[in-house]
Amino acid sequence: MNVKTASATVTKSECRAQHAIENPLLKLAKYLTGSINEILMASLVEWLKGGQQVEEGVWPDRKHNMAKLLYEYLSTWCSDLKKIVASIVPSMYDLIPPSHVPPQQHAAWVEEAAMKLLKDSIFLCNGVDDQRKTENTSHPVLREAAISFFYTGSYRVARRRPEVFQKLLPLECLALVCTTVNCVLDGFSKNGSGKSFPKFSAKEYSSLYTAMLAKLEMIMDDPYHGPKLVQQLHSWAAAGWRGGVLQSRRQCERHLKAFSFENHP
To answer: What Pfam families is this protein classified in (predicted)?
Structure first.
């Protein structure tokens, strides 16, 4: 990896991490004038500190184009989260038609089941606790998606902000996952075959994301459910961090074995 590629990778990682804990579904106009400029400036400073030179006509002439590229990259990032969610939703929400349903009715069965989950946002809940109170925003799908995407997946956003993600999963990240699951269920409710899903972008889902975040903040303020949500965010972060560390260790072991094999055939 050359210096330019490494710098671009770091900038993208910073972009993911910062917006994961701020507002991952910013609209383009706001995005280009907000924190993206701070990220680009920080990357420029690091680039210059490393003794590198900036080619004439690159900065600030191409600043807007760089910001737009990072915005488009973040859009791809959110699409990848949707893929993770789409892969686990059918089995974890029991959206697989039972054997007594004829094949020609499978799609309709899935669509109806998905609509039931979307009604009153039932898909967010995980039954009731021992006090017969609803377990809000704690469904296993949310946990699995959050850990897979932010902690153990290819992006590993958590590694860029250990001071945040090691302690607890940010509320904004949970809101993003909740919104993504809603998007995927929207797809299943309209196309039971699961062959197409709505586009997961700020234009289509920023309002829902904002509503999800507001819902989570209301839960946080509840004297009973608030402490439970905090405990949940800590618990998921701990599980995700352990999983990320274990995965990194395994990767290191594989690299060492490969290196050893290359040098000692």
So the answer is: DUF6532 (PF20149)
Q: How is the chain split into domains, by residue range?
A: 80-263
- Which amino acid is residue 60, in one-letter code? P
What sign does the CA torsion over 202, 208, 213, 216 have? negative
Query: Which tokens belong to 34?
Result: 């907000």
DSSP states of 113-149: HHHHHHGGGGGG---B-TTS-B-TT--HHHHHHHIII
Q: Which of 139, 240, 214, 172 is nearest to 16 (CA)?
A: 172
Spatial CA neighbour of 158 closest among 93, 237, 223: 237
Tokens linked to 112: 């109806």
List per-residue pLDDT tens for the chain, 265 residues long: 333 433 344 445 455 555 556 666 655 444 444 555 555 555 555 555 656 655 655 555 555 566 556 655 556 677 889 999 999 999 999 999 999 999 999 999 999 999 999 999 999 999 999 999 999 999 999 999 999 999 998 777 788 788 889 999 999 999 999 999 999 999 999 999 988 899 888 888 989 999 999 999 999 999 999 999 999 999 999 999 998 665 545 544 544 455 454 455 5
Of 78, 57, 248, which is closest to residue 149 (Cα–Cα)? Answer: 78
